[in-house]
Amino acid sequence: MSVVLCSNCFVDQGLRFDAEQIGDEDDSACPNCGSTSGRKLSMQKALELAHRFFVWGTLNRVDYGAAPVVVFNEHQKTDIDISQWYEKDVELLGNTLGIGFFYYGPNLWMLG
Length: 112
Ligand SMILES: [Zn+2]
Description:
Number of strands: 4
Largest sheet: 2 strands, antiparallel
Bound molecules: zinc ion
Helix content: 25-40%
Strand content: 15-25%
Structural class: alpha+beta
Order of helices and strands: EHEHEHE
Number of helices: 3
């Protein structure tokens, strides 16, 4: 299992927290940030992190009834308002995993 990222790669507290939850204890240096103390994430764990944080995160944030849901895949470029997260974190995950984040929801077809 090769490490691609670690919990110390992220600026966002929530992402760091989630990464610590699912990452493995491993004192090798992170290939991205060089940290030895961060919980290490394999490609699969990084995907899981992205899913937990962005997809479930947006689902939990439905205060207004019809909040857009963020999904991702390897075919699309990132096209979400990432101001609520740290741009660098989103870019890091997107670039590492080769995926883009975008909104999925019935209301969005009208927003162009
Ligand atoms: Zn790292």
